[in-house]
Write a structure and sequence with these properties.
This protein is mainly alpha-helical. 65% of the residues lie in helices and 5% in strands. It has a single domain, classed as Winged helix-like DNA-binding domain superfamily/Winged helix DNA-binding domain (Arc Repressor Mutant, subunit A, Orthogonal Bundle), CATH 1.10.10.10. Strands 1-2 form a two-stranded antiparallel ribbon. Strand 1 and strand 2 form a beta hairpin. The protein is globular and about 70 Å long. The termini are far apart.
């Protein structure tokens, strides 16, 4: 026979496990839909769409090896990705003064596609948050920021957290992005 106190403990533990499970389901549902949204907007593979976004949002003519780190791709995979972006007319390679370092920059067409990728991502996230009131959305944002700040990986990690973010929407230029601010405080890349 259970008592009210054991029911309460079971209920609290169950609620915490349920929250954990729901977070996993939410992550998977958003990930599945996000892949479709950004690939459709870019007209390219998901990794290509993410590269367009990262190049537009925060990478300023990065070396190919930095782009590889941000995307979590091998060096040869990143070279093939840049080849695809060049062939599509979305990016071009540039070389440094000594000709040994290759960098990547977006073309005007690439910037337009990157803006479309950002818009598709925003629309999907707006749809997902549509069930919440404005106050609930703000609270969810606070909680999500805390969770993401806790997930910052060590320096040198690949697949940066912010590789598909809209930096203006997150508040990074104003010092309001919880992930970037936590990474700065820990001297880590995001």
């Amino acid at each position: 026979m259970t008592t009210p106190s054991t029911d309460a403990r079971w209920g609290a533990a169950r609620g915490e496990r349920q929250a954990t499970n729901l977070l996993g389901a939410l992550a998977l549902a958003l990930s599945d839909r996000l892949e479709g949204a950004v690939t459709e907007a870019a007209g390219l593979a998901e990794s290509d769409a993410i590269a367009l976004s990262a190049l537009h949002q925060f990478l300023d003519s990065p070396r190919v090896d930095l782009l590889a780190q941000v995307l979590g791709l091998s060096s040869s995979g990143t070279v093939r990705l840049v080849d695809r972006l060049e062939t599509a007319g979305f990016a071009r390679r540039t070389t440094g003064a000594d000709g040994r370092v290759s960098s990547v920059e977006l073309t005007a067409a690439g910037r337009r596609r990157a803006v479309a990728v950002t818009g598709a991502r925003r629309a999907l996230m707006e749809e997902a948050l549509g069930a919440l009131t404005p106050a609930e959305r703000r609270r969810f944002g606070e909680l999500a920021g805390r969770i993401l700040a806790g997930l910052i990986r060590p320096p040198g990690a690949t697949r940066w957290t912010c590789r598909l973010c809209n930096l203006v929407d997150c508040g990074r230029p104003l010092g309001r992005c919880p992930v970037y601010e936590a990474a700065k405080a820990r001297n880590r890349e995001i």
